[in-house]
Design goal:
The chain has about 475 residues and is mostly beta strands. It is built from one helix and 23 strands. The strands form three sheets. It has an 18-stranded antiparallel β-barrel. A two-stranded antiparallel sheet has the order 1-2. The chain is globular.
């Protein structure tokens, strides 16, 4: 498949939609009721009690408060909509990414193209006291760079939750197989998250950064596979207090030689206490073990955190945490096996009627992003979304990650540090009730203290421009019950 074929297909579909738009709008302006066969089954409930039958951009929906524990593994949210039925939605997407020289292909001059073609699936299954939500996208990527060639594209997000009296049990799985770093991948496009997206795609709260085997260095070599499976149990010991225990296992694997394969095992326990219906404080202990395939280095990391959270359903979700961190190196560095530092971070989501702001920051010891046997990392991601008009929506994403090796800290050595940035903007609009179009620009920048060699040349600074155009289509919801 030629990458530009995806672009031609997108253009044809958009033109067909625009030609048909006046006729569709003319029908919508009439006062005739829509035939029942053309409506989605009632899936969500609006604030005034009326059913929302699948409009891709409903004006407002009633939200259930986010009851996830402050000391848990998931990022807090503004709440979740009431689900009226179990359903599943299949679909597909096609995205063309036109980009300047690849970050890990410094000898390849000029612009190139990568096309992503994938099938999408979202599933929401609800019972009296439990819920299963699945988002999956899978297909292939086709590149004009011979050395990069064609590759697979796979992303999966799964959350199963059980809420029974005082108990909350949650199982989470996050999987990805990508041809580049997941940090900043598919920014402002349908590639960024799996599933069909939109209000009908189940919104899965993401894991805290500390529980993900992330890879945030752009010049890492070749495709990578990442998977994290996490289980969590929360028990309400009183009307205001709850205890939380969790365990997770994650892997980071690289197809091509030159990067470091990593395993991580993480256990945590915490206590949360509600000061008021909106404010909560908590204490958390987390143990992380990082192991490296074919390498004797190993890290055991201990963190104690004090946390604060504030939630206003539909408007604000805030989480702050910080505390000391003790890192044990199985292979001593400069005669010392222990290092003492600080760990902390913040998660913020703020929502208004026409837009939203999200921010996530984390500082602490990580597995090394496939380039180090352990690193001190700072990672920041923020996004602003705003509804420009009835159909057009804009977003402005920004991300920064600094990874500093733990292994070169003596005065006579220079610690290798990678600073990775991405910044961009995008526009999206629905095409009817079952399709969506996106257009975006993103710049990827990386600076390192020591030169990075790729393709026979070495440099400390790397820059890539990327322009993307995408089309996504899905069926109407197929009700299970």
């Amino acid at each position: 498949m030629k990458p530009y074929m995806c672009f031609l297909g997108i253009s044809t579909l958009i033109l067909a939609s625009l030609v048909d738009a006046p006729r569709v709008l003319g029908q919508e302006e009439t006062s005739k009721p829509k035939p029942a066969a053309r409506r989605y089954p009632p899936l969500l409930e609006s604030t005034d009690g009326q059913e929302i039958s699948g409009d891709p951009t409903p004006s407002s929906t009633s939200l259930r408060p986010d009851a996830r524990p402050l000391t848990g593994v998931q990022v807090p949210t503004l709440g979740s909509p009431e689900i009226r039925h179990s359903y599943w939605i299949p679909g597909f997407q096609c995205n063309d990414l036109v980009q300047s020289t690849a970050l890990n292909q410094t000898t390849v001059a000029g612009w190139n193209s990568v096309a992503y073609v994938a099938g999408d699936l979202s599933l929401m299954e609800t019972w009296n006291r439990s819920q299963l939500a699945v988002n999956y996208s899978g297909g292939g990527s086709f590149s004009t760079i011979k050395s990069q060639g064609n590759s697979n594209y796979q992303q999966l997000g799964l959350v199963e939750s059980l809420d029974w009296r005082r108990w909350q049990v949650t199982v989470i799985d996050q999987f990805s197989y990508l041809s580049q770093s997941q940090f900043g991948f598919g920014t402002s496009t349908n590639l960024a998250t799996p599933g069909v997206g939109g209000p009908l795609g189940p919104t899965l709260p993401s894991l805290q950064t500390s529980y993900q085997p992330t890879q945030s260095i752009f010049t890492s070599i070749g495709p990578s596979l990442s998977n994290s499976i996490t289980s969590q149990v929360a028990y309400a010991v009183s009307r205001r207090g709850s205890v939380t225990f969790s365990g997770s296992y994650g892997i980071l694997r690289f197809v091509d030689p030159g990067s470091i394969d990593t395993n991580d095992t993480i256990f945590s326990g915490g206590y949360s206490y509600a000061l008021s219906p909106r404010d909560t404080i908590g204490l958390l202990y987390r143990f992380s073990a990082y192991r490296y395939i074919g390498d004797p280095h190993a890290i055991n990391d201990h963190v104690s955190l004090l946390a604060y959270g504030r939630k206003i359903t539909g408007t604000l979700a805030l989480q702050l945490f910080g505390g000391p961190e003790v890192t044990n190196l199985q292979v001593p560095l400069n005669g010392s096996s222990n290092q003492i530092s600080g760990s902390g971070g913040a998660n913020l989501t703020y929502g208004r009627s026409r837009g939203s702001l999200s921010l996530a920051y984390n500082h602490g010891v990580t597995g090394g992003s496939g380039q180090f046997t352990g690193s001190t990392a700072d990672q920041l991601q923020t996004a602003i979304a705003y509804q420009l008009s009835r159909v057009w929506r804009a977003n402005l994403p920004l991300g920064f990650a600094r990874n500093t090796s733990l292994r070169a800290l003596s005065p006579s050595q220079v610690s290798q540090t990678f600073d990775s940035w991405f910044i961009g903007g995008g526009l999206s609009r629905p095409l009817g009730r079952t399709a969506n179009f996106t257009f975006a620009y993103t710049a990827y920048m990386q600076h390192s203290e020591l030169p990075v060699c790729a393709g026979g040349s070495c440099a400390t600074d790397h820059l890539q421009h990327q322009i993307s155009v995408g089309f996504q289509w899905h069926t109407r919801p197929l009700v299970l019950r």
